[in-house]
Design a protein that fits this description.
two-stranded antiparallel sheet; two-stranded parallel ribbon
Length: 382
């Protein structure tokens, strides 16, 4: 085993250990949430922890990325850790300075610096709410547009745009050629780079790169929120802290949905799930869930209490289920579309303690694949 093979193994081991570390933290947080009577958040967080256990094992035996992309991901994780804890340090200094000031010498709210207004909102009032406004719901659901970004990453946009990941790969190759001596000093011979110009294999791996990179950007600040306080999370600061009571001692919904994406895409990479089953499933998980929530909040008149005792609306269910069928119809065909709509309804109505944000992107693609095997009908229209 030569030097660069050792470096490759160390990076891969570090990435696996990162998954296992996050798994233990999620288990700890989930159990704590369950004991604090947040069963929904506790169970959902533990389910995420189980997924991270599987991610760590998969990376250890099969690996998510070839070298040097496993190294790029380790560096990205280190950057997120440094960035998140630097923000935490800034907030702590501002809080200490505010504590030393005369409480009577207060500025008008609009004249306060942004960080002070943010700290006031996080510490002087409860940032966790039972109900959030429709505007905040709309902002939260905008994260679900990540499913459309994945389509652009993998497929591009008809003939107008190549897959974004392919463009990135070709740009990285060009950059490497321009800075070859510096690159080889850190990452080894250019011949070790795993992809050629225009190689589709790069699309497969770099799509997973985007998913795991997004997850790390979201989960590290979220762990800081849970362990040290919501004011210390840079993710809270960027998203204006749209927190619900379900997220006390529990991971946020953005963690659930990205974890579900990675799990299903991992099944595709392992040859278990058809790529169209994956994309139909995640688009249903993203867009149908968002449609159900927004239509229910904006136009829901006929209320229904689901198994988790949460109140939803018939109008929301109809909007989500109809959109689920339409997405399935377009991507995998009319027969399999029925499966997607049924699984979406089941995961939205029946789970008692587990978030549909993690169930939908896992079980809808698996449901599609199961019936693809059982029925043997063509998938899609081409």
């Amino acid at each position: 085993m030569n030097y660069w093979e050792v470096v490759d193994s160390l990076y891969n081991l570090t990435l696996s250990l990162a998954f296992f570390t996050l798994m233990f933290l999620l288990f700890y947080i989930g159990v704590k949430g369950f004991r604090k009577k947040n069963k929904y958040g506790g169970v959902s967080t533990v389910v995420c922890g189980i997924c991270f256990l599987i991610f760590g094992y998969y990376n250890a035996v099969g690996r998510f990325f070839p070298y040097p992309y496993n190294g790029f991901m380790v560096w990205w994780i280190m950057f997120i850790i440094i960035f998140s804890f630097s923000f935490m340090g800034i907030i702590r200094r501002v809080k200490n300075k505010m504590a030393l000031e005369d409480p009577q010498n207060t500025l008008k709210e609009e004249k306060k610096p942004v960080l002070r207004r943010y700290i006031d909102r996080m510490t002087k009032e409860n940032p966790y709410r039972e109900e959030i406004t429709f505007k905040m719901e709309l902002i939260r659901k905008s994260f679900h547009l990540m499913g459309l970004l994945l389509v652009l990453a993998y497929f591009g946009f008809f003939s107008l745009l190549f897959p974004v990941t392919l463009i990135i790969n070709d740009s990285v190759i060009e950059l490497i050629n321009n800075i070859q001596p510096a690159y080889e000093l850190i990452w080894g011979p250019v011949s070790l780079y795993p992809f050629a110009l225009g190689e589709f294999q790069a699309v497969i791996y770099l799509t997973m790169m985007a998913l795991i990179g997004s997850l790390m950007f979201a989960i590290i600040p979220d762990l800081i929120r849970i362990i040290w306080g919501p004011e210390y999370s840079v993710f809270n600061f960027l998203t204006r802290s749209m927190l619900r009571n379900k997220e006390i001692n529990a991971a946020g919904p953005q963690i659930y949905i990205i974890t579900g994406f990675i799990f299903s895409y991992m099944l595709y990479m392992a040859g278990i799930v058809h790529i169209l089953a994956f994309f139909a499933g995640i688009l249903i998980a993203c867009l149908s869930d968002a449609a159900a929530a927004l239509v229910g909040r904006g136009y829901g008149k006929r209320k229904v209490i689901v198994m988790s005792k949460e109140t939803k609306s018939v109008e929301g269910f109809l909007a989500g289920t109809i959109l689920a069928y339409l997405i399935g119809f377009i991507i995998v065909g009319p027969v399999y579309a029925i499966i997607g709509a049924v699984v979406f309804f089941i995961t939205d109505y029946f789970p008692i303690y587990t978030a549909d944000n993690i169930l939908n992107p896992i079980f809808i693609p698996i449901g599609f694949q199961l019936f693809i095997v059982l029925l043997g009908l063509p998938v899609g229209w081409f």
